[in-house]
């Protein structure tokens, strides 16, 4: 018995100062990590941009704001915008009962 391979031990990962996640999935083009958020605390603004479809969003930040906060704000804003927009999508026919017709205009004048 000569050499025996030691169980490969995973080298401990170099400790790097991982910044918080700043790349997210785009709501619009659905590319993974195509959305980046830059928080500029000096200016007090954050800029979100999708490098694939060029969606942009800007918001104010404070010292506690993290990129993910901007991202969720963007989701909310996009969501709200979608609700505001005229419904283009086909109605999910859940209740397709006929509109209660207003009183028929049949003039039934007896007498
Ligand atoms: Zn996109």
TrEMBL record:
Domain of life: Eukaryota
Primary subcellular site in the record, as a coarse category: nucleus
Gene3D superfamilies on file: 2.20.25.190
BP term (GO), one: transcription elongation by RNA polymerase II
One Gene Ontology CC term in the entry: transcription elongation factor complex
Assigned keywords, A-Z: Elongation factor, Metal-binding, Nucleus, Protein biosynthesis, Transcription, Transcription regulation, Zinc, Zinc-finger
Residues annotated as transmembrane: none
Region: Disordered, residue numbers: 85-111
Parts forming coiled coils: none
GO molecular function: RNA polymerase II complex binding; translation elongation factor activity; zinc ion binding
Pfam families, per the entry: Zn_ribbon_Elf1
Record function comment: Transcription elongation factor implicated in the maintenance of proper chromatin structure in actively transcribed regions.
Protein name: Transcription elongation factor 1 homolog
Naturally occurring in which organism (per UniProt): Mycena sanguinolenta
């Amino acid at each position: 018995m000569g050499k025996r391979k030691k169980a490969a031990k995973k080298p401990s990962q170099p400790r790097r100062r991982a910044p918080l996640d700043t790349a997210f999935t785009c709501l619009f083009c659905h590319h993974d990590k195509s959305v980046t958020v830059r928080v500029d605390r000096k200016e007090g603004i954050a800029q979100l941009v999708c490098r694939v479809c060029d969606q942009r969003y800007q918001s104010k930040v404070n010292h506690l704001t993290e990129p993910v906060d901007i991202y969720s704000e963007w989701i909310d804003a996009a969501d709200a915008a979608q609700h505001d927009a005229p419904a283009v999508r086909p109605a999910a026919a859940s209740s397709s009962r006929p509109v209660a017709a207003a009183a028929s205009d049949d003039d039934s004048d007896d007498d």
